[in-house]
Amino acid sequence: MKNKCLFFLTFLVFLPILFQTGVKKKRPSSYDYGKVIINNFSEKLQIPPVTFNHWSHRANFTCRLCHIDIGFAMKGNETKITAKDNIEGKYCGSCHNGKYYFKDKKVFEACSKEKFEERCKNCHNLEKNGKNKENFIKFAENMPKDSFGNEIDWEKAEIEGKLKLIDRIENLNMPKKPEFKKPVDFKLNPKVEGLPNIIFSHTKHTDWMGCEGCHPEIFLGVKKGLTKYSMADIFQGKYCGFCHGSVAFPLVNCQKCHIEKVE
Amino acid sequence: MLFIFLLILFFSDFEKFLKLPEVPPEYKYGNVILNKFSQEKNIKSVIFPHWIHRKKYTCSVCHFELEIEMKGNANPINCITNKEGNFCGACHNGEISFKIEEKTCDKCHTGDIEWGKEKFYEFKKSIKSKENKYINWSELIEKGIINPKSTLKLDPEKIMKYDKTLQLEAEFFNIPTAIFSHKTHTKWHNCNNCHPDVFNIKKKTTHFYMEDILKGKYCGACHSKVAFPINFCRNCHTGIKRK
After folding, report:
1. How far apart are CA A174 and CA A236, in angstroms?
2. Alpha-carbon distance A83 to nearest alpha carbon in chain B (angstroms)
3. What is the pLDDT of residue A21?
4. Which entry of A71, A145, A150, B230 is 20 to 30 Å from A80 by CA?
5. Per-residue pLDDT tens over the stretch A82-139
């Protein structure tokens, strides 16, 4: 009996995986790329879940600021943010506290003890294709274009000075960052013969991620070759796939990493 | 008992054994009925002919760059999306091809699955393809008869290339291995048209059973719909002898 139960359970666990193979998946639209729906507690409390759009935040802040200093997990719904946290000035409340000024504009307060319908709607909103699409198209107009994902070349936009990223906010009282020399770019050889080599650029990554964004949790050591991973792992959302595929440019853009020509 | 079973397999007709779908006449093959909104609004449905488009553009232009799904009616294509420059509107804008406006509605909203029969045979004549044989599209590229554009957005020089040939062992006794050529496929596709959604890239991957392929999985995502029909066994299982 126990065995049967176990078998049934494993079957249930693998069922969704079985259905995923062999067919094509749908990709999100440019304005929906990087959208996270946060719904740990909202629906239970009969409030619409939070729709968080990465694009509007990464237009002004580095990844590191939220994912390291403020402490958001890299996976949606893993942080378990509550209204109480926000009121206490954690997570969203680090900036959305009604005191923080951004571009001479007061940033709206995230949560408060009283319920203000209008203000809650700023985040607790499942409205599809509404304001988000409009705002995104307006924002993307002046940005350098890229294919796939948000269809914005974020890296180029930063180099061209169209984005001025904020990496630190004062009220967090983070220790001062030591000065690091940026490590050099390096080459990665794919396991499969005949594929172009990958050129990994630290310079491109450190502006957004710092060091601590990737090391030591995602990529164990700082010594090359210590962490072994394959494209299959990456497609499952490990290693590079932590960001690429969900927020950073998607994995379908093969030629963006596999750059070096095969001889 | 096993011996008899093997004997039956040996002499039986695999094409019947697998219940292969019927092959439609070539001019109709790959025509898709798009009817997501048309019927509701009393407009004739759109008949989309793949053959006209694949003459000039590879699969990846529409199915990867323009993000048109591999299943008919899966995208919410309508007048507004087209006029915004999405889906059909990416090319049908008056610059690359005819503009979508009131005058041109009938060009696509034909409602006739037989549409383009004469045009197709004219095209077939112009490329000197044998009359009783399906067009071998990959051969057309090889010979330089057609030269479809492979990208609208990317630098064609930078697109990743890979041309390893794979040998896929057959599931049935007495069936020769299937030969899979990356080179032929990358002419039409970008890597991610197939990887990792349709085929994962694990080394010890699952067997792509013919049964699944017939259901539209794996190779069946394109073959039997637009790419040559599954019934052309010898195109992949090259070792099958002719009777």
Report:
1. 33
2. 37
3. 67
4. A150
5. 999 999 999 999 999 888 888 888 888 888 877 677 788 888 888 755 688 889 999 9
Closest listed residue to residue A89, CA positions, set A111, A119, A73, A67: A111
B137, B54 contact by CB (below 8 A): yes
Residues in chain B closer than 8 A to A24 (CB atoms): 69-71, 197-198, 221
What ipTM goes with this model?
Answer: 0.76
Sequence letter at residue A193: E
Q: Which residues pair with B168 in a beta bridge?
A: B178
Gap between the Cα atoms of B120 and A211, Å rounded = 59
Query: Rounded to whole angstroms, how far apart are CA atoms A222 and A200?
Result: 14
Q: How many CB atoms lie within 10 A of CB B141?
A: 16
Q: How do strand B46-49 and strand B165-168 relate by DSSP bridges?
A: unpaired
Q: How far is A43 from chain B (nearest CA, A)?
A: 28
Chain A residues with beta carbon closer than 8 angstroms to that of B160: 195-196, 254-255, 258
Q: Is the peptide bond before B196 cis (omega within 30 degrees of 0)?
A: yes
Mutate to test the interface with B, among A14, A18, A21 (most CBs of B within 10 A): A21
Nearest to A23 among B190, B197, B206 (CB): B197
Q: Tell me the one-letter amino acid at B196.
A: P
- pLDDT-derived band of residue A17, with 50, 70 and 90 as boundaries? very low
Could you give the CA distance from residue A216 to residue A210 in angstroms, rounded to a whole number?
12
Q: What is the pLDDT of residues A31-78, one digit of tens each?
A: 899 999 999 999 898 888 999 999 999 999 999 999 999 999 988 899
Q: Which two tokens stand for residue A136?
A: 């995104």
Of B230, B154, B157, B166, nearest to B192 by C-alpha is B154
Contact indicator for A195, A262 with CB cutoff of 8 Å: yes
| B176/B174 Cα distance (integer angstroms) | 6
Q: Closest to B69 (Cβ–Cβ): which among A24, A192, A258?
A: A24
pLDDT tens digits, A167-182:
888 878 788 777 777 7
Tokens coding A94: 């680090």
Structure tokens that stand for B92 in this block: 């049908």
